[in-house]
Amino acid sequence: MGDFAVNVAVAHQIGSARGGLSILSAMEIRDEEFFGAFGRSVNELVVGHRRHLEINRENSNSPSKVNQRWLEATSMAAGPKTRWVDGTPEYSLHICGLRKLFPEARFVHVFRDVDAVVRSMVNFHRSTGIRLVVTEEEAYRYWLRTVNACLKAEQSYGPRVVYRLHYSALVNEPELAIRSLLDFVGEPYSDKCLDPLAERINSSNVPPDFESNEAAIDPAIVEEARRISAEIEATAQPKTVSPAHAAELEAAFREVSVASYVKVARAEQQLQEQERHYRAAVEQYEAQIASQESHYRAEGENYEAQIASQERHYTAEVEAYKAQLRELQQEYASVTRKLMRLLNKMEKAAARLRESRRWKLVNFAAVFKAKLSRDKQLPGYGYLDEIVAAYCEWRDVHIQKAAIRQSATPPTPPTPPTQRGSSVTAGDSLANSERTVKPARVDRVAKQAENRCGV
User: Fold this and answer.
1) For all residues of the chain together, what is the average pLDDT?
2) Same domain for 220 and 121?
3) Burial of 149 (0-12, 13-18, 19+ CB in 10 A)
């Protein structure tokens, strides 16, 4: 609670730093009232929750004899308790601040020989596992700091506020020591008050063979500590109050609170500067992100426009290719139909040519051989027969496709025998020429057919 008292002082300084513009100054809430309000609240909390401490000690798995005696002495049957004790050694350094929180508080300075305290602090870890100090010199310095603070409190506030209790008196004359202590706090004496002294707690169990290593300690520290310890043993506690020492303690407390206030103010200023720095950095990053976002959005829109343009271009090209393909398909279909009609006509013309009188007259020998061999077919026009045979083979393989194309071909109207032109079929031309050829030209035509057909 010593640091808490310093924090309360810092809070009051912050709340009254701007005069009438601060809430504490504007409402004229003084230092004493501010501390007193917090002290009363803490006191009410501790007294109001003491029952929880009793319950926790009762529910302890292995309650010690000290706890059992404490429960008997503090039971609710003995009446409600309105006072409480906090035995924290560090409170020696915060007596001024604690008096501001608890104006009616009493402070007990339990004094012990410095060498015994140093041995106990150095060996404290043997029984508790907690190391209070690392070296003996550190223990001497701690004793000097706390004892000097208690001596200043004795001189500043007098024997009605601070009471010096010798540790040797508690060990050698416990009843006399407890009676004088209860007189100091204004409580009646009871024999049960001596029960807790029957068992020592927090003992360091200093080994008998423990030897101090004074060679590693600053001699001036040891000499000063032993001198003060001897003076306290030889002199009694001051009976009067020293306003000078009280002012010194007050100034020291103010100095600590001001230093804490300055530290808090600097920390707040650093936090504000860091906040401004981080806010500026965040704004800069947000601006960069917004710029990058707009840049990437513009690039995305540009890419989308390019993709849309390319898509339209490729779609137009595909449509053009499809149109060209349809035209080519139609053209190829038309050419294929025409070629198939021509080849069909050539097939018929070749068949008629072999059966014509002129062909039989020119190829008399071959006809004669064919008659002798019934299975042998009459020879025709060699190159024409090759074309017709190849077409017939292709048509047999693609008969379904040819049938589809032929079904799509409109029928050709019959041409009169006397008509001349491109619409006359090859068979009809040959038939007409057969009728009109003269006997005098038969030999010449046959000779030309032999040369072309190789017959």
Assistant:
1) 78
2) yes
3) buried
